[in-house]
Amino acid sequence: MHKKEEIKNKKMNVLIVEDEIIIALDIKFTVENLGFSISGIFSSGEESIAKVPLISPDIILMDIKLNGKIDGRCAAIKIYNKYNIPSIFLTAYSDEKTLKRIHDNKLFYSISKPFSEYQISETIEKTREKFGLS
Q1: For the sheet containing 37-42, what is the strand order?
Q2: pLDDT 10s digits, 19-29
Q3: What is 56-74 written as a DSSP string?
Q4: CATH number 3.30.70.3040 given to 3-131
Q5: Contact, 13 vs 39, CB < 8 A?
Q6: What pLDDT sits at residue 107?
Q7: Helices in 2-116 by DSSP H: which ranges?
């Protein structure tokens, strides 16, 4: 088996950070349907930062607007800087100001809600390649 095939076949652990439970469950269903496992679902940036070292996700699907004092962008940057775990933003906010904040540092990809299974799959694959995740 070639290295690229090995990477594609590895079951990744995905953390979902979403403050609306119905949307979080939809994301969970979609991600599991794609063959990935879920390492957790949290509704705040603070909780996700605190729990990441305990659950060791490979990648995070992060909403921008969350419960708590910090937003998803701030949480994703803190997690990446401390644990080197990338995030993909899932957001209903597609205004220019929000998108500029997301893409300022060119670290992360984003998907607008409503999302498709194809968008999730392709963006996880792009993130795997960009960050050398196996």
Answers
A1: 37-42, 13-17, 59-62, 87-91, 109-112
A2: 999 999 999 99
A3: --SEEEE-SS-BSSS-HHH
A4: no
A5: yes
A6: 73
A7: 3-9, 21-33, 45-55, 72-83, 96-103
Residue type, 106: K
Instruction: State the pairing for strand pair 59-62/37-42.
Output: unpaired
Contact 55/8 with Cβ under 8 angstroms? Answer: no
Q: What contacts 81, CB < 8 A, 6 or more positions away?
A: none
**Which is nearest to 88 in space by CA: 50, 48, 123, 51?**
123
**Contact yes or no for 83/52 (Cβ under 8 A):** yes
- Cα of first residue to Cα of last residue in the chain, in angstroms, is 14
- Per residue in 49-97, pLDDT (tens digit) is 999 999 999 999 999 889 999 999 899 999 999 999 999 998 876 667 7
Answer whether 115's CB lies under 8 Å from 89's CB.
no
Q: Which amino acid is at 45?
A: G
